[in-house]
Every structure is written in structure tokens, then in C-alpha cells.
Amino acid sequence: TTMGVVSAAKGAYESNAGQIIITVFTVGSALFSLISAIIALTAFEAATDNLTAVIGNWERSPVTGIYLSSSETCPTGYSLMDDPKWPGTYSSACACPTDAFSTIEGSLQYSSASATCDANQTDGGCFSQATLSSVSLKEWRGMYICLKREGEAQLLSSSKTRPIPKKNGVCQSGYQACGTGTYDNARTICFPDTYDCPVSGVTTATSLPDGYESTNAMSTDDSNIWYSRNSYMDEMPINHIELVLYKPNGKVGQCFLGGGNHESYDGDTNGYTYANNYPTKCSKLDTRWETLDYQTETDYLGENFENEDSCLTDTVTADYIATGTQCSSTPLTSTDCMMYGVGSSFAGCNDDICRNIMYQSKCGGLTRVSTQNDYYWAVQYRREIYWKSDCQVSMTDIKGIEKPVEEVYPALQTNLAFNVIGNFFVGMFFPICLLLNKFYGDVPCIPGEGETEKNLIEWNKKYLNVTLSAFKLVPAIIAIAFFGKITSVIRGAANGDCADSDDNRTTLTFEELDFEISESIRSLWTQVGVDIFNIVVAIVLTIFAHMKKSKTSKVSPDEEGGGGGEEEKGQVEMVEGTMVE
Predict the structure, then answer these.
(1) Beta strand pairing status for 89-90 and 269-270?
(2) Reduced to 3 states, what is the DSSP secondary structure of residue 454?
(3) Of the residues 51, 286, 289, 564, which has the fewest C-beta atoms closer than 10 A?
(4) Mind listing the pLDDT tens digit for each residue in 322-370?
(5) Which of 321, 315, 345 has its CA nearest to residue 333?
């Protein structure tokens, strides 16, 4: 009979083996669900960052002029290129003079340390290492890079793009054709005729290269010559020039789909080792960026550091660690020394750590930083991203999904938060509590013990499961709805072959985004299906339990064989179900 099947299932469920299997399955399912939600969110975030970068490129005005200035003053219409900064040092060592005596410890502090001073060292008169301030890295090979940026970007608004030449290569009124031919065949663009055509090529050479003009030659202080052109030889305009950390043939530069920001250091430099803090290497390099020029980090930092006041005006500028030249015998009172002004008396040092800190000059510290590395800095540039004029998905279509894509992310975050809460309590905490109750009869953190405690745990598990499953449906369904608005556009861009044939990064951006969206949608629908199943099962089991209770209460003791007694009359055996996470 049905009741017999239910009784058998209930017996198997309540057995020791059954409880262990159910708990392992429930906890495993909860962990799988949680990990899937985390992976979907992080992967979607990485893919959308690259979509934002593509749209940002289309919205960036092109560079119409490059000029190397011998000073920080640029010609009219030009401005200095954004410069990176060396972030300065953090205190990471402790210098203990000869007479350092701690009243706390009641002894001399004999040893300095390559770590900040502790309470005993500070009490004894030891000195925490002084820090160096940040430095703007504006100078490149003795010159300052000035850029002129004006005119129209490719993408002017969510519904308008910059015009392109007609089939005969002619532009509409108010625009000039930059290049010869059409946009799709020769990358010719239409640009407002009130401005110069944007820069389409730039290179370095020792003599005039083919395709460049001598009038656009610019020399650095080491005879390294930059040439630029506006002649459009099947190339899109340059619209982005940056200084970045770089390694030839290494994964250091502009990153694609993961990796650190190589346009700056990743935090302050270690003050004792003078080792710079570098960002994470790229998982893939963004090959849309091309390298114009590069030099060693030692040379780049060195030429910028030597313009600091401490290196221009101080009497002692040598690196003490490399040369043994002391900034002063009284480092606390000499303005040439890093430790100037941190104390009033100094009795000398017993160890090298103390000497390296106390006798280092300010300029020497900067010099030391510039030599403790094996990286490079590079000037890299990127062009406007070409997009076929007859692509089934236009630039404005892609711009139109930017807001829905941004709105998907908080929905996925909310969904993850509900998954964390729901899967922890219903998928892990309560099943483990039931297992502990089964074997030990009492769980310390739950009121009651034995059957009373078990019923309380199962009641909370059942009704919290229904409640949290219902709440989890809301952000999941919202995310699916937003995905519906963007899926066709992303898929069309991924499959439309609309970027340049050698621009695999833009194509890969949409392919990756299409893949991550498909995975996210699949994960969300799976979650929705499981949540709905949990809700339905909980409702069915609750109805069945009430029906069984009603049927049992109608059966008299005599009808069941008599003699049930007053105590047995009205006793009800409740059937509790288990939920699938």
C-alpha cells in the first residue's frame, strides 16, 4: 500500500546509513551550487570588463598630434600624457643604536631588525626606518610626451556613430576624408574638417622610415627619433597612448582577460630591501596594444629620480649600501640623510641593518630603488577598434546593452548572497545537526534534546528551505531577464566576424562573453529548477503529513485492536521530508 511504501521510505531515511547518505548528498549539493554561483559571477565579471574596454575605446577621441617637449610645458592645444607614479616606500626595518636600552625588558636592544620596531625596541630608543615620498614619472629619455586629442570618437552616443566615407570615398559636408578609399577596404575615416586628421602611425628609428615624413620627426636626448604620420595606410587612428610596466617576450604589459594593472606599481616599495611591488602578470596579453619604445626600469626611474630635490641639491647623494659613503656621522640632524629629524641623539650602530638605515642618504635611497629590478617601462599605443560597417550588430547595438550588462552583475551578486545563506543553513548546518542528533541525541547549539530537538531542526530546515528557495528565485529570474536583453547582441557580435581579421582580442571578448552568459544562464535555470522542486516537494510533504494526521485521529483504539489507552489516543506520527539542494 501507499502507507507501507511511505513507512519503508521513512525507515530507510531515519536509519544511520540513510542519515549519513542524505547528509553527504545535501552538503555536497550545497557546495556544488555555491561554487557554481561563485564561478559564474567571477567569470562574468572578467568578460564584462573587456566589453567595457571595447566600448570605452570606441568612445575615446583620437590623438591628432604627438610632441616631445624638453620641459613640462606643452605647446598650445597639447597636454602632458598621463604619467605613472612611483609610490614611495613603507617602513620595514628597525635600527637599534649602540645604547638602546629597554626599561620594559630591562636590557639592551642589541640587534636591529628587518621589520618594524616592536614595543621593547621603541622603548629602548630604536628607530623605525624613515620612508621616501612618491615621485611622478613624467620624463621619458630626457623629454616630456605631449598629446593633442580632439575631434570625434567613433561612437558619439548610444544611437550615433562618426560618419564613414561613401562608396566613392567622399565624406559628407563638414567632414574630410582621412585616407584614400573606403572605410571597410582601406580604413579611411571621415573626420571634422576643422581639425587635423588623427595620427595613424608612430614609430622609432635612427633614420626616416618609409611611409613617414621628416617634418614629424622628434628626437629624444639620446638621439632616439620618433616619427608619426597622418597618411592612413590601411590603419585605424591611434586613440590611446600609455606608459606601462613591460617585459619583452613576457606576460607583462596591457592585460587581456585577467592580470594586474601594469600602468602602475601594486603598492608601496619595501623600504629595507628597496624592492618594488609589482602587479600580477597577465594571463594573456592584449595584442591590440603595440610597443613604440621601451627602456629599462633602472634608466626610467633613474632619470626621474635625479630631478628630485634631494638628488639636485643635497651635498651627499650616494647610495650608502653600494658605496659605503655615509650621508653624515650625525644622521638625525643632517638634511641629506633619510633619518633626518626622527630623533635627537644617536650613539652609533652595532650591526649592518642599523648602518644601512642610519647612514643612507635620501637620494641614495632613490638610487637604490632604481637598481633593484629587472623590469622595463614601455610607451604603448592602441588604435580605434575597427568594426565592419555592415555588421548585423552595430556599435550602437553594443552600446545599448551596456546598461543591462551592468544591471546583471548586482543581480548575480544578490543571487550569490542568497545562495551563501540558503546553502549554509539548509544545505549544511541543519543536515549536519540532524546527523549529530541521530548519533549523539543532542546538539549543543540547538534548544532541547532527542526527539524534541530533532523535530525543531527538521521544522526549521523545511520552512527555511521553502522561504529561502522562494527568495532565491527573485534575483535569479531578474538576472535571466536581463540576460535575455543582451544574449542576441553578444552572440551576433561573437559570430559576425566584424572586427579586423588580425584583431583576435576583440572577437575573443565577445566569444568569451557569449560563453560566460550561456554558462550563467544554464546555472541560473538549474538553480531555479532545483528551488521550484524543493518548494513543490515541501508543500506536497506538508499536505501529506496533515492528511495522515487527520486519518490517524479518526481511527479509534477498538478499531485498531483495542486497548490503546488514553495516553496513546491522539498520538500522531509526523512524516518529515528531506529537501534536495
Answers:
(1) parallel
(2) helix
(3) 564
(4) 999 999 999 999 999 999 998 888 888 989 999 999 999 999 999 999 9
(5) 345
Q: Which three cell numbers stand for residue 218?
A: 622628434
Give DSSP secondary structure letters for 136-159.
E--EETTEEEEEEE-S--SEEETT
Query: For residue 198, which of 159, 244, 229, 162 has the smallest C-alpha distance?
Result: 229
Amino acid letter for position 366: L
Q: How many helices (H) and strands (E) does the chain have?
A: 15, 22
Do 195 and 151 meet the contact criterion of CB atoms below 8 Å apart? yes
- Cα separation, 303 vs 224, in Å, equals 15
Alpha carbon separation from 267 to 84, 264, 271, 552 (Å, rounded): 13, 9, 12, 71
The burial class, CB within 10 Å (0-12 / 13-18 / 19+), for 75 is exposed
Evaluate whether 226 touches 145 at the Cβ level (below 8 Å): no
Residues with Cβ within 8 Å of 390's Cβ and at least 6 positions away in sequence, in order, are: 184
Q: Which amino acid is at 73?
A: T
Q: SS3 for 280?
A: coil
Q: Using CA atoms, how far apart are residues 381 and 460, in angstroms rounded to an integer?
A: 60
Query: Rounded to the nearest 5 degrees, what angle is found at the Cα of 261, between the Cα atoms of 258 and 264?
Result: 165
Res. 72: pLDDT tops 90: yes
In the numeric block, which cell numbers belong to residue 300? 626610467
> Cβ–Cβ contacts within 10 Å for residue 16, how many?
10
What is the rounded CA–CA span in Å between residue 254 and residue 381? 10
> How many other C-beta atoms can be found within 10 angstroms of the C-beta atom of residue 285?
18
Which residue in this structure is represented by grid cell 551596456? 402
- Number of Cβ within 10 Å of residue 253's Cβ equals 26
CA distances from 250 to 277, 284, 285, 301 (A): 17, 10, 9, 20
Cα–Cα distance measured from residue 560 to residue 293, given in angstroms and rounded to the nearest whole number: 96
Coil/strand/helix, residue 349: strand
Cell of 400: 545599448
Give the Cα separation of 144 and 80 in Å (integer).
Answer: 7
Please write the tens of the pLDDT for every residue from 120-163.
Answer: 888 888 889 999 999 999 999 999 999 999 999 999 987 899 99
Q: pLDDT at residue 577 above 60?
A: no
- Contact assessment for residue 557 and residue 569, using Cβ atoms and an 8 Å cutoff: yes
Cα–Cα dist 63/237, whole Å = 7
The three cell numbers locating residue 295: 627602456
Rounded distance between C-alpha atoms, residue 512 and residue 489, angstroms: 13
Reported as half-sphere exposure (CB side, CA atoms, 13 A), residue 143 has a value of 19
CA distances from 357 to 92, 97, 273, 311, 344 (A): 10, 11, 11, 18, 16
The Cα-based distances of 481 to 158, 412, 477, 535 in angstroms read: 21, 12, 6, 22
Q: Are 297 and 247 in contact (CB under 8 A)?
A: no
CA dihedral 213, 219, 223, 228 (to 10 degrees): -40
Q: Name the 3-class secondary structure at 55.
A: helix
